[in-house]
Structures are given as structure tokens and as C-alpha cells.
Write a structure and sequence with these properties.
Layout lengths: L1 H11 L6 E4 L6 E10 L2 E5 L5 E5 L5 H11 L5 H28 L1 E8 L5 E9 L4 E5 L4 E11 L2 E9 L5 E9 L2 E7 L19 E8 L1
């Protein structure tokens, strides 16, 4: 009875991207992912993510041969595959980060935005590999400079020169072609990293809208 219930469970759960398993005596089949061999049974994963077991002896000869091949796979092969996947993921993330940073390099002219998005004041940023220099393009006056780092859609700057020296600014940004929107928190205990690209004076958050020259 228990075996019958297991088979019914297998037959009810199906996934389009899985191996087809066949019961030798009835010819009935089901699609499920191979997980592992557990004694005289094979553990399968159904489409809903649940796992179930089925007697290996009741499966077709082809299924039993497949299980035998899986059981004989070199130990650690799964670990190596997972490790390779992680390395590939890290490499992709690093490559994406480098691409974004390359797009940030250059001279950006724009303005500080009010809470309603209107122009508040002019600003120019010159971004190099390891430094950002801010100035007022109208008065040709340098305001200060600092280092920066990006992570995903976050950008954090630390002032090293001028009026920004010793201050830290946690922000978010959006880069769309030659348009850069950068919203940052002021350097004070009552201000935190913004969640929206919008000036919020009460929260000590300011937005810059810039175009690449």
C-alpha cells in the first residue's frame, strides 16, 4: 500500500524539465529530478520541490542503469560543479561591476535637484578610476574630492579634500546611457542611505542629475 501511494505521488507530480521514470510492471511513467540513491530506493524531486522515494527494483532496466551510472559518479563531482558555478557567478558580477565603473568615468555636468525635481544649483563631477572631484561649473570653483566604491546600485563616497574631507556619503544611483542620477545621504547621524532617487531635505538626502560631457 505504501509503495502504491509513493507511485501515485510520483505520477501526480510532474515537471517539464526532468527525467522520465518508468515503472517496469505497469509501464506508467512520471517526470522528476534525480536526487540521490538511498539504499534500495531512489530519491526524486517533484515539480513542487518535495522529494519522494521509489524502489529501484520496480523501475525499468533503463532507469536502473541510469541510477547505477549516477551512483558510480566520482565523489566530489557535484562539489566541483557547484564551485565552478560560484566562480562563474563571481566572475560575472565582477565583470558587470567593472563595466559600470567604466561608464562612470568622465566629466558630468548637471544640477542639484529640489524635492519636486526642479533645478537647485549647478554641479560638475569629474570621475576617475579612484577619485571623484566636485566643482561649481558656473563659478569654476572646486568644492572638494574623495574616493568612492560601487556595489550593485549603491555608491559610497568618502571625502578626502576640501569641504567634503573626512565625511562619508552613502547613496544609490541609476545610470542610463549618458544620464546619471545619484542620490546620497548627508554625513550626519540622522541621515541614512536613500531608497528613492529623490531629494528629501528632512531625511538629509539630496539628488544630483547629471549628463556626461
Amino acid at each position: 500500500m505504501k509503495t502504491t501511494l509513493l507511485l501515485v505521488s510520483l505520477l501526480l507530480g510532474s515537471t517539464l524539465q526532468a527525467r522520465t521514470w518508468t515503472e517496469a510492471s505497469s509501464g506508467r511513467s512520471v517526470e522528476a529530478d534525480f536526487v540521490r540513491v538511498d539504499g534500495e530506493t531512489v530519491v526524486m524531486r517533484m515539480s513542487n520541490g518535495a522529494t519522494t522515494q521509489f524502489p529501484i527494483a520496480r523501475l525499468s532496466a533503463a532507469d536502473q542503469e541510469f541510477i547505477k551510472q549516477q551512483a558510480g559518479a566520482p565523489s566530489g563531482s557535484s562539489t566541483k560543479t557547484n564551485s565552478a558555478s560560484v566562480e562563474k557567478s563571481d566572475s560575472t558580477e565582477s565583470s558587470s561591476k567593472d563595466d559600470v565603473k567604466k561608464q562612470l568615468l568622465g566629466t558630468w555636468d548637471g544640477y542639484m535637484a529640489d524635492s519636486d525635481g526642479s533645478k537647485h544649483g549647478d554641479i560638475r563631477l569629474v570621475i576617475t578610476e579612484d577619485k571623484i572631484t566636485a566643482s561649481n561649473p558656473q563659478g569654476n570653483r572646486e568644492m572638494g574630492a574623495g574616493t568612492y566604491k560601487i556595489s550593485g546600485k549603491r555608491i559610497d563616497a568618502t571625502g578626502t579634500e576640501g569641504q567634503f574631507s573626512g565625511k562619508k556619503y552613502e547613496g544609490i544611483f541609476d545610470l542610463d546611457g549618458k544620464t546619471l542620477k545619484w542620490c546620497s545621504a548627508n554625513d550626519n547621524p540622522n541621515s541614512s542611505r536613500p531608497s528613492k532617487l529623490q531629494t528629501n531635505t528632512q531625511a538629509g538626502q539630496f539628488l544630483m542629475v547629471l549628463e556626461k560631457k
